[in-house]
Amino acid sequence: MSFKFIHRIAFKQARSILLISLILGTISTGWQIYNNIDLEKYRLQLTVKQVTQLHKESAARAVYNLDDDQAEEITTTLISTPFIYHAAIIDDFGDNLAESVRKPVGQTWLASLGSQLFKTSSHIEEPLIITSPNQDDARLVIDLDTAYIANNYIRSAMTNLSVGLISSLILATIFLLLIYRYLSQPILDIAHWVNQLRQTESCPPQPYDKPDELGDLASSFARLWEERKDKTDQLNDTIDRLSRSERFSRSLMDNAGDAMFLCRPDSSIVRINHQAANSLKSNEQFFIGRSLAEFSNNYSTEALQALFATIEQKQAITMEDIHISVQGGSFPVEARCIRMNLDDTDYILILARDISVRKEAEKQIFELAFFDTLTGLANRRLFIDRLNTAMKFHQDNQRYGAVLYMDLDRFKTINDSLGHAIGDAILCEVAKRLTRILPENATCARFGGDEFVALLPDTGSSAEICAEIAANCALQTLEELKIPFDVDNHQLFCSTSIGIAIFPDRKHSAVDILRHADTALYRVKTLGRNSFQFFDPEMQSSAQERLEVEKGLHQALKNNEFELWFQPQVDSHDQILGAEALLRWRHPDTGIIMPGNFIQIAEESGQIVEIGNWVLLQAFKQLASWREQGLPESFKRLAINISPLQFMQVDFVDRVLQMLDQTKIPGLLIELEITENMLLNNFEIAGNKMKLLKKRGISFAIDDFGTGYSSLRYLHYLPLDILKIDRSFVTGLCPSSELAAIVEVIIATADRLNLTVIAEGVETLSERSALMELGCNCFQGYLFSKPINATLFYQKLQAANKTTIA
User: Fold this and answer.
1) What tens digit of pLDDT does each residue of 148-168 get?
2) Helix axis angle, 420-437 to 411-418, nearest 10°
3) Fewer CB in a 10 Å sphere around the end CB: N or C, the chain?
C-alpha cells in the first residue's frame, strides 16, 4: 500500500461525496421547485385577482360615468404592476374606454425555460357590473407579461437551487472534514507507519491506538509485523544456515575426515572423496565405475548388492569389523551405509572410518583392564572372572580345581637394595617360568608386587586327585624358582611360598577361595617359607584370630590397655646403665599379650604409627617421672624401638622434638632403636632425619644387627652410636664356636667405628663370659632381669645404685 494509492482513494471519496451531494441537492431542489409550480401559479392567480378586484369597482364607476380620465388612470396603474403589460377597460358597448400598454420584458432563454415549466393563462378578462343586469357587462382586460413571470420564477428557482446546492456542498464538506479527521487521516498515518515498518528493524509506536476498528487494524498490522519479523528472522537464519550448509556440503566429501564412497545399488562407485583416495593410495578417477567389493576383504559384489537391497530409503545401517584393502595390506573400518535419492536415482552413500587407532586403543584398554602391564599375565579382575566361570563349571560337572597363591620370599630386600629395575626384571622372569611350567589350560595372574596366583581348572574328578596334581605343580614351581636369576650381571636367588586352596565348595565364593589360598600362604611364611601348604579349617581359624587381634588393637589404645615394661641394660660390673622400653598389651579377657603376637599385625594394618607415638610419649613421661624422683649418674639412656613405618612419617622428627619439649627430657637420655631394613629401604631420608634428631643429643642404635643385609655403608655414613648383637648370635655362644667368629667381627667393626656394642638375649654366665672375652661389655637379657613394669624397674635401679655405692 502506497501514499499515492491512499490519495487516490481520498480524492475519489471526496469526488464521490461532492457528486452525490450535488445530485441529491439538485434532485431535492428540483423536486421542491417542481412541487412549488402549482403554489406559484396559485399565488400568481391570487395576486392577479387581488389587483383586479382592487381596480374592478373603480373601473365599473368609470364605465358607468364614461370617465375617460379615471379609466385611463386605472389602466395606467394596472400596467405599473410588473407582471401586467396591457390593461384595457371596455364599456358595455364593447368600446375601449381606456387602454394602456407598455412594452413587455423581452423573451430570454430563462423566460423560454420558465414558460415551459410555468404555464399559465396570460389574458384575463374580468366583467364589470354597471347597473342593469340585462345590460352587457363591461370588461376589464388584462394581459400578463408571461416572460417577466417566467423569468422571475426561473430566477427564484435558480436561487433555491443554488442555495440547495451550496447547502449540500457545505454539508458534504463538513462530512469530508469529519471523514478525513476520523478516517482518512488515521488511515494515512497507519499507511505511513506501515511504510516505516518496511524500512526499520524494530517496530515504531502505533500511530493509532484507539479501541475501534482502525485501532484493531493497527494492532493487527503490529502483530503481523512481529510475526513477519519472527518468520523473516527465522527465514533469514534458515537461509544463512542453508547458505553455509551449501558451502560446507560442497567441500564436505573432499574435506571429510572419513572416507566416503557414493555408489549405485549395483555397488559400482560413482564418486569418492579425497580421504578415500588417500586411504586407498590412488587417485579418484581410478575408482570411478569399479565395484566397491574390489576394495573389501569381507564382501563380494553379490554380497554388497544383496546388502544394499535391504537398505530402505533414508535408512542407515552400520557395518563393523570391515577391512579395506590397500596397497601392501588392509586396515579395519567402521562403515555406515545410507540409501538416498538424488534426481530420481537411488544411490548408496558409504562413510568408512579408519578404526585402526580405536582397535589398538581397545586392545590396550582390554589389556590394561584384564592384564598386568609389567608381566603380561592376567590381573586380579580377569583371574576372578575366570575363577567364577571355572567354579560354576566344576559345580555343574562335579569336577575339581585348585588355586595356587604364590609370594616371592625376601623379594623386597632385593628390590630395595638393587633397585626397582632389577626387581621388575625378576618379576618378568618369574612370569615366564610360571607360564612355561603351568598346564596350558591354567591361568596365571599377577595381583601386584611379588604376588602371583595360578588357576588350575578341571584338575581331577575328586578332591584327592586334584590335591595331588596341585601339590606336584607346586613342587615343580618351587624347584623352577630356586634356579638363580641372572639379571644385569647379578646372580640372584629368590625362593617362593605357595598357599593352595581346592574348589569348588558351594558354601564359598571365588573371593573366599582366594582368601583360603592366601591364608595357606601366610601359614607357609610363619613356618619358614620356601614351601607350600593346603588350606584347612585350622588355618581359617588362625586367620580369624588375626582379624580379631587387628580389631582389638583399635580398642586397646582407646581403652588404655597398653603398658610399658622395661628391661635393664647392664655393664660388665652389673651396673644398670640404661633400659629398653618394651610394649605389653593387657587384654581384658586374655591377659598379657606379648609384642610378637600383635606387632606384625599392627604394622600390616598401619596401626603401628599410632601405637608407636603412644609408646614414645609414655616413655618420655615415665623418664621425666624418674628424673623427678632421682636417677643415678650411671643411668645413661632409655632405648625405644621405632617402627619403620612410624619413622618414615613426614612429621616424625617434629613430633619427637615436640615430645621432648613437652616432657622437658634432654635428648642425651633417649636412644632410638631402628632396624637395618629401614635403612636399606630409605637410606637418604633416614639419614637426614637421624641428623636432625642427633642435634638434640638423641642417640641411635641398630637393633638385631647381623640378621639383615648388614651393609657397612650405613655404618660409615649414618650417625649411629650403638650396635645391638641379635640374640641368635648370643644363644649358646662359646669362645671356640663359629658364632664367636661372627660376633668378634661385629665387635671389631664397631670398635673401629667408635660404636658401642650391646648383646641381646644373654641368659647364662657362660654367654656373658664369652662376650666379655670377645670384647663386649654391655648386656641385656634374662640373666640380669626380665622385662618388668616401671615401678619394679625403678626399685631395681635404686637398689643397684645403693649396692654399687656400698
Assistant:
1) 777 777 777 777 777 777 877
2) 140
3) C
- Distance between CA atoms of residues 160 and 170, nearest Å: 15
Match 643429643 to its residue by C-alpha cell.
Answer: 697
330 forms beta bridges with 325
For the ranges 35-49, 177-191, 238-252, 506-520, the one whose mean pLDDT is highest: 506-520
CATH of 256-360, one of 3.40.50.1370, 3.30.450.20, 3.60.9.10, 2.40.10.270: 3.30.450.20
Report the C-alpha gap between 194 and 5 in whole angstroms: 14
In angstroms, what CA-CA distances link 113 with 155, 366, 560, 601?
A: 11, 123, 148, 147
CB-based contacts of 712, cutoff 8 Å, min separation 6: 749
What CATH superfamily classification does 373-535 receive? Answer: Reverse transcriptase/Diguanylate cyclase domain (3.30.70.270)
Return the number of other C-beta atoms located less than 10 Å from residue 615's C-beta.
21
CA distances from 382 to 255, 379, 386, 753 (A): 43, 6, 6, 54
Residue 1: band (very low, low, confident or very high) from pLDDT cuts 50, 70, 90: very low
What are the tens digits of pLDDT across the range 656-700? 999 999 999 999 999 999 887 666 556 778 888 999 999 999 999
Contact 296, 324 (CB under 8 A): yes
SS3 166: helix
For residue 237, what is its C-alpha cell? 537464519
Instruction: Supply the pTM of this predicted model.
Output: 0.46
Q: Where are the beta strands (DSSP E) in 750-805?
A: 756-760, 778-780, 788-789
Tell me the CA distances in angstroms from 601 to 543, 548, 550, 596, 607, one per residue in order: 11, 10, 6, 9, 8
Query: What distance in Å separates the CA atoms of residue 145 and residue 711, rounded to the nearest whole number?
Result: 170
Topology adopted by domain 551-805: TIM Barrel (3.20.20)
